[in-house]
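step=encode ok
step=design start
structure_in=
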């Protein structure tokens, strides 16, 4: 890929939303409508020049992601207490409930998010096997998938061709729907909305046993129901705090929290620190990506993507 300028061609979204410091670029694209329930969006990050060396960034926890590095220096990624160094060229980031810290050294990263429904179309085995882990994509995907993806992306000449190339590739690679698809949709919507009563109460209303619910969540979402609900509730509270200017105000956190202390305990588990300290860290790239993603894909963070 020879040129990266950032920006978007989405009508009504100004390129100024994607403005980044010199030498950096960010881009999000919507997948083809036939992929929209399975792929949460396409993303491209790029960095060049001296400032790109040893650059640190943060990402919030979310569903699984496939990522390919092109013309990139070494990349090290930390998820919770787990260090993955160096990152494979084509990798699967499993579902996460810890913040993700990266140290990069220039280059291009192209990827796409995989929803719980998408997991059932592109991967075999339980998503829980990969929770909070990164593995070579060839270890998790069907034979030849990773090599075909790298070859295809390597042939794209600039960022404006990424969406069309990924659409064509993923439509051709997508497997048959899961027999559990209707139930996966119900669970996903309930988790994103955190409706009254929790997932356990909903499972009874759907005539689904707790064992079946846990099996479906582990296989397609990567976590058990309680962990999924905690992640969504925490991110609904954290994202506005990250984007807000001025002192942190905990009065606007999700009503599912009984107190600020309750929220801060989750923050320690997810971020490893308090929201105030996290916000004063190296999150310029994260803030820019939250706003750009919300404008293009409808939600600031992948874990709150609605089917």
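sequence_out=
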């Amino acid at each position: 890929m020879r040129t990266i300028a950032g920006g978007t061609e989405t009508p009504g979204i100004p390129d100024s939303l994607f403005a980044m410091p010199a030498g950096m670029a960010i881009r999000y694209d919507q997948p083809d409508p036939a992929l929209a329930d399975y792929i949460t969006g396409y993303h491209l990050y790029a960095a060049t020049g001296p400032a790109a060396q040893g650059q640190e960034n943060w990402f919030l926890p979310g569903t699984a992601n496939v990522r390919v590095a092109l013309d990139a220096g070494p990349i090290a990624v930390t998820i919770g207490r787990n260090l993955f160094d160096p990152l494979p060229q084509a990798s699967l980031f499993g579902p996460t409930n810890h913040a993700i810290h990266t140290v990069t050294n220039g280059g291009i990263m192209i990827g796409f998010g995989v929803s719980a429904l998408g997991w059932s179309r592109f991967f075999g085995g339980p998503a829980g096997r990969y929770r909070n882990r990164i593995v070579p994509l060839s270890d998790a995907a069907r034979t030849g998938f990773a090599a075909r993806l790298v070859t295809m992306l390597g042939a794209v000449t600039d960022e404006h061709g990424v969406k069309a190339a990924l659409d064509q590739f993923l439509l051709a690679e997508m497997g048959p729907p899961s027999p559990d698809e209707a139930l996966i949709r119900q669970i996903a919507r309930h988790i994103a909305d955190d409706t009254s009563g929790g997932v356990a109460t909903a499972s009874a209303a759907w005539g689904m046993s707790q064992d079946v619910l846990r099996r479906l969540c582990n296989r397609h979402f990567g976590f058990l129901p309680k962990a999924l609900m905690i992640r969504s509730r925490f991110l609904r509270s954290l994202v506005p705090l990250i984007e807000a200017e001025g002192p942190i105000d905990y009065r606007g956190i999700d009503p599912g929290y009984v107190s600020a202390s309750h929220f801060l305990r989750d923050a320690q588990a997810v971020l490893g620190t308090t929201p105030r300290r996290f916000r004063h860290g190296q999150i310029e790239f994260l803030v820019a990506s939250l706003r750009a993603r919300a404008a293009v894909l409808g939600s600031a963070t992948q874990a709150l993507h609605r089917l």
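step=design ok
step=annotate ok -> The chain is about 40% helix and 20% strand.
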